[in-house]
């Protein structure tokens, strides 16, 4: 029986932390580059301001390289990190590994030696191969007892002893699996800590480089003084006519039922065509309205499959409104939302009829200037 990975949640949290840092670094890089005075850099003349132009160029290139390098470094932390049992045995050939892997394996072996009394079941065990020898011995004792218990004249106590020896073997075998899980988590944690420290150092260096670039291209701006404002007081005369009545409130647009689809399909059913006809009739009768098509999927299937499925469902509804309903394409807006903002919140791999749908929202058409 395989040992459950008690470090699975911790490893997921480490990888989520790295993903968060990648997003933060990408956002900071975008903000810094967006606020960098590139106009001043374009105004620098390499011939007359050679020193400033050279400093600005070096600072800009260094900042972009440092930010990109830190993001690549963080992304490499998300790669699969397997630890083989051989790295925790007494004898190991480190020459077969890359220099970076050798450093991580040496740190892992040192940590294993510090924690071996907590990881290995018996005192006196130094490496994993000591435990593996006990596993092999327990397995042999178990099989030998099985042979003895299968004899016709075997006493009932033999069957009890078979179960005891089997449990001993399974416990030792599970201990090996638990050590493998510990080793994978420990190596990943060390890699994440080291990688995050290096990425933070690169990010700080990128800030310095952007500061140097900004200093090199900085120019004093003239302070514009606004002319004094002349205040004009207007005395309103009383108006005898009463104020006009307030405008009537705008009527609320009707709500439409969702169009439901079968699992994995994007074909409009008879009921779906009926609901589609309601939106078509309203759009025909109200030229100042448009429709927003929101296409969803349930959480079963891969993200790539669900994305393509949502696109086909949205296209089926849009095509029916244009081809059969006679609605202008300019009045139809489409949003494909597979597994995003679902009508019914569910976990992964959940079959939900409410989420296998396309929602139709009627809206007032925007002014012609923004269409």
Spans of at least 5 consecutive residues with low confidence = none
Q: What gross morphology would you assign?
A: flat
SS summary, helix count = 8
Distance between the termini: 63 Å
Whole-number tally of structural domains: 2
Number of strands: 4
Helix amount: 40-55%
Task: Summarize model confidence as the mean pLDDT.
Answer: 80
Spatially, the strands of the biggest sheet line up as: 1-4-2-3
User: What structural class is derived from the secondary structure elements?
Assistant: mainly alpha
Rg, please?
35 Å
Could you explain how this protein is built, in words?
The chain has 371 residues and is mostly helical. It folds into two domains: 220 residues, no CATH class; 112 residues, 2-Layer Sandwich (60s Ribosomal Protein L30, Chain: A), CATH 3.30.1330.60. It has eight helices and four strands; from the N terminus they run H-H-H-H-H-H-E-H-E-H-E-E. It has a four-stranded mixed β-sheet. The longest helix is centred in the middle third of the chain and has 61 residues. The radius of gyration is 35 Å and the shape is flat. The protein starts with 7 loop residues before the first helix and ends in a 7-residue tail after the last strand.
Summarize the structure.
With 371 residues, the chain is mostly helical.
């Amino acid at each position: 029986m395989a040992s459950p990975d008690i470090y699975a949640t911790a490893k997921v949290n480490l990888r989520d932390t790295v993903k968060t840092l990648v997003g933060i670094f990408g956002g900071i890089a975008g903000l810094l580059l967006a606020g960098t005075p590139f106009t001043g850099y374009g105004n620098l003349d390499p011939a007359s301001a050679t020193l400033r132009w050279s400093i600005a160029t070096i600072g800009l290139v260094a900042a972009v390289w440092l930010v990109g390098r830190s993001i690549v470094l963080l992304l490499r932390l998300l790669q699969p990190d397997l630890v083989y049992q051989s790295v925790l045995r007494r004898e190991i050939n480190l020459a077969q590994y890359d220099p970076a892997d050798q450093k991580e394996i040496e740190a892992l072996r040192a940590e294993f030696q510090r924690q071996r009394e907590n990881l290995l079941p018996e005192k006196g065990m130094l490496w994993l191969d000591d435990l593996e020898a006990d596993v092999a011995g327990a397995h042999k004792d178990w099989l030998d007892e099985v042979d003895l218990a299968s004899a016709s004249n075997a006493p009932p106590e033999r069957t009890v002893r078979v179960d005891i020896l089997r449990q001993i073997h399974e416990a030792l075998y599970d201990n090996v699996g638990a050590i493998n899980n510990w080793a994978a988590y420990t190596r990943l944690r060390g890699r994440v800590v080291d990688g995050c420290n290096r990425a933070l150092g690169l990010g700080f260096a990128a800030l310095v480089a952007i500061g140097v670039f900004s200093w090199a291209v900085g120019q004093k701006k003239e302070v514009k003084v606004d002319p004094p404002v002349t205040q004009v007081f207007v005395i309103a005369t009383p108006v005898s006519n009463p104020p006009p009545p307030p405008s009537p409130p705008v009527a609320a647009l009707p709500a439409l039922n969702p169009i439901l689809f079968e699992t994995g399909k994007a074909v409009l059913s008879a009921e779906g065509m009926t609901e589609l006809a309601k939106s078509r009739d309203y759009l025909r009768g109200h030229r100042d309205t448009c429709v927003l098509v929101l296409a969803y999927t349930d959480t079963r299937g891969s993200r790539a499959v669900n994305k393509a499925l949502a696109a086909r469902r949205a296209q089926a509804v849009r095509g029916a409104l244009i081809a059969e309903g006679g609605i202008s394409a300019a009045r139809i807006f489409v949003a494909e939302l597979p597994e995003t903002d679902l009508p019914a919140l569910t976990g992964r791999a959940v079959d939900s009829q409410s989420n296998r749908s396309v929602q139709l929202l009627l809206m007032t058409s925007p002014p012609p200037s923004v269409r």
